[in-house]
Amino acid sequence: MSVYWSALAHDLSPYVPGEQPKDRKLIKLNTNENPYPPSPKVLDAINKAANESLRLYPDPACTLLREAVAKRWGIKHEQVFAGNGSDEILAFAFAAFFNRRGSIGTENKGKDGPLLFPDITYSFYPVYAALWDIPYENPELAGDFSIDPDDYKQKSGGVILPNPNAPTGKALGIHALKDIAAALEKNKKVFIIDEAYIEFANENGTGSMVPFINDHPNVLVIRTLSKDASLAGLRAGYAAGSEELIEGLCRLRDSFNSYTVDRIAQAAAAAAISDTSYYNEINRRIILTRDRTTEALRDMGFRVIPSQANFIFASPPAAGQTAVPFTAAAMLASLRDEGILVRHFNKPKIDNYLRISIGTDEEMDTLLKVCKKLTGRGS
Fold first, then answer.
1. Which domains does the chain have, with CATH numbers?
2. Contact of 331 with 318, CB cutoff 8 Å
3. Alpha-carbon distance 298 to 154, whole Å?
4. Rounded to two decimals, what is the model's pTM?
5. Cα angle: 9, vertex 12, 13; to 5 degrees
6. Cα 51 to chain centroid, rounded
7. Disulfide: which of 43, 128, 200, 366 matches 94 by Cβ 3.0-4.6 Å?
8. CA-only gyration radius of the chain, Å
């Protein structure tokens, strides 16, 4: 704490990212990074963009990137917003579409309900809500960690859902999402769908909502290139929605910094979005590895939540199932001692689960070997 901080800075509880080790070589299964390299076309685009033009400001309209997104999805580039990863876009979206406590100059002053998002979800959402002083409520997930769509059809100040959800990996189908969007549209409220992991969903009825933005003017879909496009180190993302929603985001961005996405990031992101065949292949491999790892952990007595993401959410075998009972916190420490990083959230309902990112087959084989040794289970 500091006497120089504002009241806002003093009261914030910032998001805590996963560990990025520097001291020794570890198998990193804690931050949901893609284990495979970016497309060669991306690296070529970076090399070409790294030239004398870096002395000039980047295109503030991010035209190249937005046009690549528009071409991929068959929408207009005016329906696309580009940013430095989805987290930046989310920060703009919270401010652009959800009213603050005691906000003035709005037709709905005093009539809005709270913003809604699940009690177990991406832990940045309450941070953004606190930053912008947005009231919110958290409908509870069911016992199997699923989202009940009916919880989000009530009158509210808006809804944000990750699909698939984090850290559980469970997803809602397109029909459920469209029903929520229609219910919110009756009160002219925005429905943000955070699709950081949707490219890893292979369950019937799931998929991106980008193709349906013309049917639902209140839907904003936010995507990151950190996961499925192997660009966590670059920082690029985009949002797709109606032109009026995109204009709202632009108003927020241009009140901070019009030049948010640099020249290299724009070129690399556009190349990644255009190379669907490469990324479809590596992400298919991740799905196969995820499903194989899930079955192997279950055979050892782990409870593993069915995942549609590039991670799994697993609880160690219960007492009596292994020679040495493990809590999630104890297994976290033991795995780290063995050179493997995973993620643990010390929060109610999920404090005995570990979120395990899907790595290469070799990395996941090492994880399974260590888990067998620690639990005494498996052949």
1. 7-36+277-375 (3.90.1150.10), 40-275 (3.40.640.10)
2. no
3. 37
4. 0.93
5. 140
6. 32
7. 128
8. 21
Hey, which residues does 81 pair with through a beta bridge? 239
DSSP for 225-255, written as a single string:
SSSTTS-TTT--EEEE--HHHHHHHHHHHTT
Nearest-CA neighbor of 266 among 235, 241, 289, 287?
235
- Predicted confidence band at 23 (pLDDT cuts at 50, 70, 90)? low
> Strand pairing partners for 311?
357
pLDDT value of residue 378? 60
Residues 315 and 352 sit within 8 Å (Cβ to Cβ): yes
One-letter identity of residue 215: D
pLDDT above 50: residue 110: no
Query: Do 238 and 66 touch, CB atoms closer than 8 A?
Result: yes
Query: Phi first, then psi: what are they for 196, rounded to 5°?
Result: -60, -30
363 vs 379: CA distance, rounded Å: 18
Phi/psi at 66 (5° precision) = -65, -35
Residue whose token pair is 């520097």: 22
Q: Calculate the CA dihedral of residues 13, 17, 19, 22 and round it to 10 degrees.
A: -100
Q: pLDDT, tens digit, for every residue of 288-344?
A: 999 999 999 999 999 999 999 999 999 999 755 655 568 999 999 999 999 999 999
Q: Given the DSSP bridges, would you call strands 311-315 and 303-305 parallel, antiparallel or unpaired?
A: antiparallel
- Residue pair 60/259 in contact (Cβ under 8 Å)? The answer is yes
Instruction: Name 109's Cβ contacts closer than 8 Å, sequence gap at least 6.
Output: 99, 103
CA 73 to CA 237: how far, in whole Å?
Answer: 15
Yes or no: say if 317 and 301 are a contact pair by the CB < 8 Å rule: yes
